[in-house]
Every structure is written in structure tokens, then in C-alpha cells.
Amino acid sequence: xxxxxxxxxxxxxxxxxxxxxxxxxxxxxxxxxxxxxxxxxxxxxxxxxxxxxxxxxxxxxxxxxxxxxxxxxxxxxxxxxxxxxxxxxxxxxxxxxxxxxxxxxxxxxxxxxxxxxxxxxxxxxxxxxxxxxxxxxxxxxxxxxxxxxxxxxxxxxxxxxxxxxxxxxxxxxxxxxxxxxxxxxxxxxxxxxxxxxxxxxxxxxxxxxxxxxxxxxxxxxxxxxxxxxxxxxxxxxxxxxxxxxxxxxxxxxxxxxxxxxxxxxxxxxxxxxxxxxxxxxxxxxxxxxxxxxxxxxxxxxxxxxxxxxxxxxxxxxxxxxxxxxxxxxxxxxxxxxxxxxxxxxxxxxxxxxxxxxxxxxxxxxxxxxxxxxxxxxxxxxxxxxxxxxxxxxxxxxxxxxxxxxxxxxxxxxxxxxxxxxxxxxxxxxxxxxxxxxxxxxxxxxxxxxxxxxxxxxxxxxxxxxxxxxxxxxxxxxxxxxxxxxxxxxxxxxxxxxxxxxxxxxxxxxxxxxxxxxxxxxxxxxxxxxxxxxxxxxxxxxxxxxxxxxxxxxxxxxxxxxxxxxxxxxxxxxxxxxxxxxxxxxxxxxxxxxxxxxxxxxxxxxxxxxxxxxxxxxxxxxxxxxxxxxxxxxxxxxxxxxxxxxxxxxxxxxxxxxxxxxxxxxxxxxxxxxxxxxxxxxxxxxxxxxxxxxxxxxxxxxxxxxxxxxxxxxxxxxxxxxxxxxxxxxxxxxxxxxxxxxxxxxxxxxxxxxxxxxxxxxxxxxxxxxxxxxxxxxxxxxxxxxxxxxxxxxxxxxxxxxxxxxxxxxxxxxxxxxxxxxxxxxxxxxxxxxxxxxxxxxxxxxxxxxxxxxxxxxxxxxxxxxxxxxxxxxxxxxxxxxxxxxxxxxxxxxxxxxxxxxxxxxxxxxxxxxxxxxxxxxxxxxxxxxxxxxxxxxxxxxxxxxxxxxxxxxxxxxxxx
Length: 960
Description:
alpha/beta, 9-stranded mixed beta sheet, 7-stranded mixed beta sheet, 28% strand
């Protein structure tokens, strides 16, 4: 792509073209005007300084290799001698140097940026856990763009250590049950699969909870286990919760204990507007907060004053007729200033009754939904399952384009399809193993999310080194099934491959088994097979009937679609014609329905995280339509929104479009308020409340942290004073970030319990010791940007050295400036124009000279009396006539024998008649008498390099 340093200079082309057009119309020298205009345009473009970067492939005779050795604390579980072994092995073969990352934090990204120069290869000796500085993926991306390949060797694990982490809310309400999660990580699968834990509150020596847990294999990197427990605090103030684990080899030890500080406050005040004080909703709210229950907002003599003392207002099945404009204005001001509003549905809320719905009311303007039926049936989920095995390096039929390039182009065509503009798209790649490239679905109507997905697709490159053993479609389908497990509807699975997907009968059967879960859900699987005659081991692609395996698999799948590109060209599927009949959904309203199953639409939100709604049903709901910018959290199996949230000003608003569990006898949502499902209600109230701390005096907020990890402390002053805070006897340097809000960053290097003017902050072991074992995302990141992850067991093999040497051929980009070329083109055009004009002038001058000489000869002949009306005839019949010739003489005999060849002006000419007028150096060198014949025969004359037969000398007009 060509870029200009000074693009605004290009505007000068406009007046140049206008001037050229004016002169072209007003002169006969049109060619001159055209050439001068073109020259001017070229010079203007050159002044704009056009340039581009061209990718070139290079290799060095003694290539540079940088070994970045991770010697931080988390590497104590691994063999740390691998760095010295590789340095010794590479010495003499490569120009190798060693770099290291040490301390209690791992800044791999900074080390990569520091050493990458575009002409070397980097080999990381690490577990891949980067926890400080530049993001690892950003660094890999930058290195890849510069031409440096970053690969990795994962050292051998020696000790299988454990680490523990405790998570939960820091600010909690007295008397409420609070949920805490214990996360235990083990470096790698081993014979020990259980651990024990004990939980202590404050400084009590007796554990309040104890037990054991099992590990669940999350990936090939490490094991992970989670235990959940609840704890209630009966007194306000600072409390501490500590968890200790035992098990494993305890190679590190310091990461087997974790403490969290808990700041307990009084129950905040909330207002519940309801006609059913005994409903399930009212019971949950009453157990958690200080509730002021009213049937109508009119019960408050001073509504603004009541709202200022409350954190949240819950409007339970309130008819719009009971909400005045003044109350709406007060609520809008309350929410805009940071208050929370929770609106619950029912027979008198949202769209009911039809004659008094919220639709188009001023109250509805605060809500994240419109009170009318939604035609939204759930966005389509699309999973792109892309083959990046080594066979993707085969060439298409043109002999130049790699198959992987056509696969990438096809994937981009899919996400650009207007048919899928409202779809959510996730990306899974498969090669030697399957990895999820995107952690979540990307919404194609969001330009930012679409650009991120496009970038991920464009960075895909083949991985592995063999043709037949690097493709594992089964793992890709399993991964696609995992990420669509909790999604609604029938996901569309699009497989993009070169067809090399089956290695035998067992491989074929495993793919069929992996496709069964999608068949059970009625999902369509599209197989886009892009291959070419250049594909290596083409027999692997077909069964014994010569039918491509990809086509056989699709034909045997009940909802399969097969498309092929046998010449390796990109595909652009017409989804509208292919899938229109398959994607028509049933009508939302079904008269025979007895209930609607609730589904979690967004599982990453605070409210729905870890919420399991499996089997939960409601019998009715209010028809609402989510507004743009809102967030749908819970929906029915028909796609109708049930829980929708958004921000309004500084506050938050949530809409639950079903009833309070009692519903004046209707009882739509009884199951939603039972047992564990009730967490949806409590979390929704907590979310809209945002900050339960009382808005008085100076309120401090600071999360617990890890040793050596910076953390931001925030102090909000509600009384207008400038807060003065101290830590370990030292005054903190606060900076005002907004009115009444002050911040500062603190870093504490030693673990322990600290106090910031009475507010607790706990510092645990360094973050370096939290993530142990190989990072689960490390291999996919390395391969995503063109690198390779080598097992430590391979470093002594010849194939390892060959693979590293192969990577030494690197691609780099050079700057190509076009200004000089444009100036040279303008100069060539200018010189060509000058040469053309000079040649034209010379030819014109020669024609003038020749015409003058012919006229002179004619006059000489006429003066001698040799002209009559019939041509050249002698009137006096002289015997001979004397003629003066220029240059060398021309011999003519009386017998009219052919004269000798004569060089005339550099050209050969045969002289046969006295009518010749040779040009020579001496105009009077010879005088010769020749006899004039009465009717001289025509002679052949070379005039201006061309032959001409003269028959009538009088009427001829020779050209010079």
C-alpha cells in the first residue's frame, strides 16, 4: 500500500490539470501541452513523497539467535539448566547471545521488545507466565511485524507445586452471606489429584471450613480446582479471611497461603415500591438491606430527601398511572447522580396493561428496554473452525498462492457477509492441536470487535512440520462444542480446510463422533474444502471412491453443506440462498407452551458469572425490546429478554421483565427465586447499588494486591475536605482526578496486613508464584505469530537444530520511496520531447535545402534552353552540354551502361542520368561534357534515402 508523507501536496494537481486544459484548448501545440502537464503532475506527486514497505525474505550466513532465559521465581519448578545447554549447543553454529528475566515478576514482553531487531530469531526459555510490563501478545505481534520470529522451549517440569488464591467481595454488608471462591492450581498432572484446605476468619486458630478438593484438567498446561464457600460477618469493621492448602511437592511454599481483607459495613438503605410485601423479591431484599417498603412514591413527603438517603429504588410491578412526572424527574436525578434503579415486571408493568404501558413515557427513557414485543430472536452464533496445519503451505493452481492465504481470504469474506452482520463469531483453529484464538464471541455489528476478529484471522499461519500428522479436526470440533455449550439457538459451524483431515478409519470415526453434539442441536455444519492439484499427498484427501473425505463427512451429516474449491481459490458463500430455509426460527409465542426455559446470554457479567440456570423455567414474562447500548443477561429459550441492564448517567438500571415470584397470584417466576437461583436477584440489587459504602465523610477504596504489584487507591470526599491518608506512618501523595475524588498508586514489596488510615489492605505473595506450570495460552500465542514451541526433550536432536535453522530465513520490510522514480520518469519525458522537436526541425531544414537546390537546377536548365511543353527536349539540339557537378564526378557513357555505385550523403545510389545532382564536398571539383539524349529513359534515383523512378523531371517535386 502506497502512503504519502505530505498528502496535502497532492491538491496541487488540481490547478495543474486546469492550467493544462486551458492551454490545450488555446494552442496548436497540443502534444507539447500534454507532455508538460504530465511532467508537472509527476513532480507534484514526487513532492508528496510517496512510499511503501515491501516485504522481502532474507537469510544470514551466521544468523543471530537471542536466548531469553526466564529465571524468575515461578521457574523453580522447572529444569533451569536448559539455558546453558542451548547456549553451548548454538555456539559456533549461530551468532548467539543470552538475555534473562529475573526477580519476582516476569516481564517477557519487555524482553522481547528489547531484543527484537527484525534480523534475528528469539528463543524463549520460559513457562510463558508474563505478569508485568508490556502485554506478551502485543510484544509478539510487534516482533512479528518487524521480521523477528519468536519461538519457545518449555523446560522440563521437575516439581509439581500448588498455589492457592482466594477471591470475593471486599466491601460486604453485615449479616449477609458472602460468597468466596478458592482457586487451587497445580503445575502439571501428576499422581496426586487431591489437596486439603482450611479456612480461617480473623485470627481464630480454629478453621471455620475445611475439606479436600480434586483437580479438573483445564488444559495441557496445568490443573485447576475451585471450591466455593459462604461466610457471614456479624460485626462491622475490618475482618480477614485466610485459606491454607496442603498437598503437592511444595517446591515454593510461599504460595500455599492466601489472605483477603473484608470491610464490613452497616446495611444500606433501599426503597421498595410494591403492593406485595410478602413476595419473594421483598423477602430477599429485606434480608440483605434496610428496606423501606411503600405502595406508592407519594407516601414520601419529601421524595428527594428520601432518595438521597437510599442506595437503590426497586419498582415492583408499578403501573405507569401511579408514577407522576415529578416522581419521574426525581428518580431521573437520583439515578444520574449514581443511584440504582431496579424495575420488576408483572401484570401492571412494562407492556401491561396495553392501555397503560410504559411505552413512550418519560419514565421509560431511563430504562434499558422499550415496552413493546421484541422481534429479536437471539443473534446467530457462528464458529469458524480453521485448519492451520502444515499442508496449508501447499500452492494453489496458480503455482504462487498458498492454500492458507485462500483460507484466510475465505474467512474474511464470511465475516464481511451482510447475511451475518448481526451474528456473533468465534474463532477456533486446529492443526497439531486445537486452540481457541478468541476468548469470546465477537459481534459483527460492532466495528471494534469485528476489527479484532479480522486481525486474528489475518495473523493465522500454518503450524507443524508434517503433512499427515498435524491435522486434528476432532479437537477443533470439541473446542467449538465447548464454547457454544451455554449459548442459545443452533450455532453455525463453518470448517475451512484444505481437505487433509483424515488419517485413517479411527480418525474418521472420531470426527463423526465430534459432530454428533451439533446434530443433536440441529446445527448446520458447512465444510469449505479449498485444495489444489499441488496439494502434497493428495491421496490422504480422498476415500476409496476418490471422494474427498470432507465431502463424505458432510454428506453423512444430517445438516451438512459442502463447498469445494479444487484450484485453491478463495470461496465467498452465499449464505442467504444456502441457509435461509435452515435458519427460519419458530414464532416466539406458542399457545401450547407450559413454560419458558431461562438461559444465560452473557455469562461474563458480574450478575450472571457462575450462575447456573439449568432447568429453570418461568410461565410468563413481559414483552420488551432491548435498547441499543443495553446488555442482555438472561433470556428465554425463544430469545425474549428477561434481565436487561445498562448505565444511566453515573447510576445503573436493571429491568427484570418477569414478576416478583408471587405476581398477585400469577406466579410467573417462582423457580427464579428458589435456592441458588435467588443469587440472580441479590446480585442484581448489588450491581445497581455499585458502592454500598455510605456517602459521608471520606470513603476509601483499595483492593488487596500482591507483593511488588502496584495498586490504585481511591479516596472520595463527600464533605468537601481534602483527604489526608497515611500508610505505615507516611502521608500518601493524592492527586485529584475529579471533583471530590482523589487517587494514588501504592506498591508494597513485603507481604502482610497494612492499614491506610484505618482501611485494610492485604499484600500476598508475589504474583509470580500464583500462576505455576506452563501458561495455557502460551503455545497458541507463539504459533499465532509464526513461532514454534519445542519440548525440552527435543533440544538434543538434529531435527531441532534443522527446525531452528529453517526459521533463520526471515522476512523483513524495506522502505521503498517512489519520488526518485517519478522524477526520472518526468526527466525521460522531457528529454524525449526535446529530441522529438530537434529531429522535426532537422528534417524540415533538409526539405528546405533540397527544394532550393531543385529550384536552382531547374533555373539552370531553363537558361540553357532545354525545356518545352512536352518535358525535357532540346530546342537547338546541341551535341553535348557541360554540367558542373558537386562532389565526386558521376561517370556516364554514351552506351547507357549502368554507372557504378555511388555513396551520396552516406547512402548508396546508382547514377544513370545527367539529371542527377550529387552533393559533395567540393562544388566545382569536375566539369564533364555528356551527350544529351533526345528522350532520356527514366532513371532510378535515391532521394532522401528512398528509391524513386523519375519519368518527368519537370513535374516531379523532389523531397530533401
